[in-house]
Target: Comm domain-containing protein
Amino acid sequence: MRFVFCGGLDCPDWVLAEIITLSKLSSVRIKLLCVQVINEILSGSISYEKVYKLTSGGNFESGDIKASVAALYFIIRNSAKFDVDPIILSKELQQLGLPKEHCDSLIRPYKSQKEKLRNKLSEESLRINRIEKVDWRVDLTISTHEMKQVLEPSVQLKIKTNEETISFGVNKKKLKILLNDLLQAKNIMEMK
Model:
């Protein structure tokens, strides 16, 4: 079965296994664990001391606790990444076997922090430096090949970003190859 929070793919087996562990916790503890996981995503720090206190008394081993936190991290991060509606997320988690009360407890902090999570993930996504200035010029050189004089263009390109300046030159042959490669990349991107 395919799930929106998994990007339209099947849910990983390890997450399915941790749903059982998460079901053994109370819904209040699930909510508090979700708050810790959201703090980890937003600020990069998680209080494992609080996590261990929240899971104490449930006869959980250290590995079970870490795996449960990892499952919550996967669920919340992917849900924000794929912009999953909280109602859809709740239904999908119930389909995986998480009790409704637990789903509701997970949804509350997710719903309240969804925009912050999306903004944070957007900041972390792959970006190129902003281009500040592009200079170019075309040089014509005279080439004598096989007793003919031919004008051969070459392009000199200078790109200035906010961090560095990149310069390179290409001749006619390399420019054709570059153009062809860029067109192929464009076609591949449009297919997805």
